[in-house]
Amino acid sequence: MATIVTITFNPALDKSVSVPELISERKLKCSVPVYEPGGGGINVARAIKKLGGDALALYPGGGYAGTKIGELLNSEGIQSIAVPIEGNTRENLIVTDQAAGKQYLFDMPGPFITAAEWHQCLTELGKLDDVKYIVVSGSMPAGLPGDIFARLNRVAALKNARLIVDTSGEALLQAVKAGAYLIKPNLKELGHLAHEEGLDPTSAVKIARQLISENDLQVVIVSLGSLGAMMVTTDTFILVSPPKIEPKSTVGAGDSLVAGIVHYLSSGKSLQESVQFGVACGSAATLNPGTELCRKADAESIYQSMRKPAPVL
Ligand SMILES: Nc1ncnc2c1ncn2[C@@H]1O[C@H](COP(=O)(O)OP(=O)(O)OP(=O)(O)O)[C@@H](O)[C@H]1O
Ligand SMILES: [Mg+2]
Predict the structure, then answer these.
(1) HSE value, Cβ hemisphere, 13 Å, CA-based, for 162
(2) What is the mean pLDDT of residues 13-30?
(3) Is the CB of 38 under 6 A from ligand 1?
């Protein structure tokens, strides 16, 4: 039984195709579609698997896409629990324009989740034994109650598990008020929380500290894209910088960062080491084209290079 459970309230079946050139008003011949299971928590579970760990993916699933996500997770060796829903799980479309070498991500709205359905998600979570980390990641679909994070936090407390949240907007605000062990906003998401646009890293640290002192939060990880991430707790602050990398695609970087942190934390590593490894995983994900998550070998070699002491000049 995995000690990490990821929850994806708005999962997606990601369908990737390429076209010779993206031109309007034309019938565009697409390549054979490649299907992948997606949505924040599902991606975190997949990245943890790639890193050699185990996570169980819990999500509401309905219709063809819901079934297909379960099959794909199974083929990747990832345990999952799909809570059946009346609606149809969304299918996202990812189109590569071969002429321009560009990728377009069409993000569909998810189905409405009824009260019986989200209640069932919490019930399934409650039934699991030995859970140490509950990772809630991705967007929140319509139908979820405003106190969903307070409810999740209660389940986490009963299990003596840590709640980790990576979401945005109103949902992130709710998570902060409800309390969580760790949140992972990027600068824009943190700025939105504080009603401040164009945040710089220095003011981000102040805001993160304030969030920790005013709420039941212990750790804020602010991700900074190519600059890495900052870890803020009540009494510590560190900036973790990755080596310079030529990114192929930054899709999946945030999920790989969260996966690396949770994977290391659950292996008993310190918070600081876990954040360093997470940053290495986020950066490793950018080495791969398209939606591909981090590869273990890349993550480990970036991590080692980050831990080498600076040369004495
Ligand atoms: N251009 C880049 N070069 C090197 N590393 C990167 C780059 N972009 C992202 N990363 C790595 O990925 C991590 C997460 O990236 P980012 O801050 O973009 O998260 P995010 O905004 O949540 O991303 P997402 O769009 O996946 O949700 C960073 O902390 C960093 O380690
Ligand atoms: Mg993100």
Answers:
(1) 16
(2) 96
(3) no
Phi then psi for 150, rounded to 5 degrees? -65, -40
Question: Are the C-beta atoms of 293 and 255 separated by less than 8 Å?
Answer: yes
Are 304 and 266 a contacting pair, CB within 8 Å? no
Q: How confident is the model at residue 310 (pLDDT cuts 50, 70, 90)?
A: low
CA gap 167, 184 in Å, rounded: 8
Domains identified in the chain and CATH numbers: 1-16+31-120 (3.40.1190.20)
pTM: 0.96
Averaged pLDDT score across all residues of the chain: 95
Ligand 1 pocket member 229 (CB < 6 A): yes
| Whole-number Å distance between alpha carbons of 195 and 177 | 15
In whole angstroms, give the CA distance from residue 39 to residue 35. 13
Supply the pLDDT for residue 291. Answer: 86
- Distances in whole angstroms, Cα of residue 58 to Cα of each of 42, 87, 95: 8, 17, 27
97 is catalytic: no
pLDDT band at 38 (very low <50, low <70, confident <90, very high): very high
Give the residue, by CA position, lying nearest to ligand 1 atom 3: 226
**Per-residue tokens: 89:** 């799980």
Q: How many CA atoms lie within 13 A of 295 on its CB side?
A: 8
pLDDT digits (tens, 9 = 90+) for 286-295: 999 888 999 9
Give which of 169, 128, 126, 119 is closest to 148, Cα–Cα. 119
198: left (phi over 0), alpha (psi -120 to 50) or beta: left
Q: In ligand 1, which atom is closest to the CA atom of 255?
A: 26
